Amino acid sequence: MNAIADITPDITPDIQARIIDAFNFRHATKVFDPERKVDARAFETILEAARLSPTSFGHEPFKVLVIQTPEKRELLRDFSWGANGMMSGTTGQLGTASHFGIILASTAETMTAGSDYLVDHYRTVKQLPEEVIEIFNGAYGRFQTTDHGITTDREIADWAGKQAYIVLANMMTTAALMGIDSCPIEGFDMALTTQTLGRDFGIDTGKWKPAVMCAFGYRAKDPEFPKTRRAMADTVSWF
Ligand SMILES: Cc1cc2nc3c(=O)[nH]c(=O)nc-3n(C[C@H](O)[C@H](O)[C@H](O)COP(=O)(O)O)c2cc1C
């Protein structure tokens, strides 16, 4: 018996198989069937997985933009080489996905310890009493300055971006469990995407920067190549 089965005897082989099947099913889908749309309830489930994702300190330093109108998607095409089909000779994920998202990460303006934004988040979202807010301010301040050395604008936005990638993973796994395909996308020009979000999407780019994009839908065809991964022994070390 393996270690996971040892500590979780209630998890049936059936559930384990469904989880592993979902991870094998998920692949980075380059072209979706443009005729097949993800139904609204299924997509709400994917968004709920995003919303319920864990984040460091519970700061939720992310936001998901869902971009559905072709006109808005086209604004991203020129500089989104990982989603515009240039490598497959198609209209890519931007042209074919049922749902297309950009996950934004918070910037230093809101994610610096003691910011008005964070204090308000502790009060109104986390509903912490004032004395606990003091403790959070202190602990997060030390985390930023001492523990992890996250103090520059870039470092703070990158830290928020890490949280955004947890959201991304949860959205893709949730989709895969429902038989929905997806593609994570970081093939885009950061500066031009930020500029476009500010100018054409009304995003306050002082507070938010793009972290990663994601597309959802149903594959146009099965992947050409089987999934390859390192062996478990090269991936995990036990001590
Ligand atoms: C953060 C991230 C960014 C990625 N960016 C792109 C991208 O811009 N375009 C694309 O087609 N695939 C992209 N991929 C897909 C990877 O190339 C793919 O996940 C990897 O080769 C493993 O293949 P699989 O996902 O099909 O198992 C990205 C994957 C991740 C995790």
TrEMBL record:
<dbReference type="InterPro" id="IPR033878">
    <property type="entry name" value="NfsB-like"/>
</dbReference>
<dbReference type="InterPro" id="IPR029479">
    <property type="entry name" value="Nitroreductase"/>
</dbReference>
<keyword id="KW-0288">FMN</keyword>
<dbReference type="InterPro" id="IPR000415">
    <property type="entry name" value="Nitroreductase-like"/>
</dbReference>
<protein>
    <recommendedName>
        <fullName>Nitroreductase domain-containing protein</fullName>
    </recommendedName>
</protein>
<dbReference type="Pfam" id="PF00881">
    <property type="entry name" value="Nitroreductase"/>
</dbReference>
<keyword id="KW-0521">NADP</keyword>
<dbReference type="GO" id="GO:0016491">
    <property type="term" value="F:oxidoreductase activity"/>
</dbReference>
<keyword id="KW-0560">Oxidoreductase</keyword>
<keyword id="KW-0285">Flavoprotein</keyword>
<feature type="domain" description="Nitroreductase">
    <location>
        <begin position="26"/>
        <end position="218"/>
    </location>
</feature>
<comment type="similarity">
    <text>Belongs to the nitroreductase family.</text>
</comment>
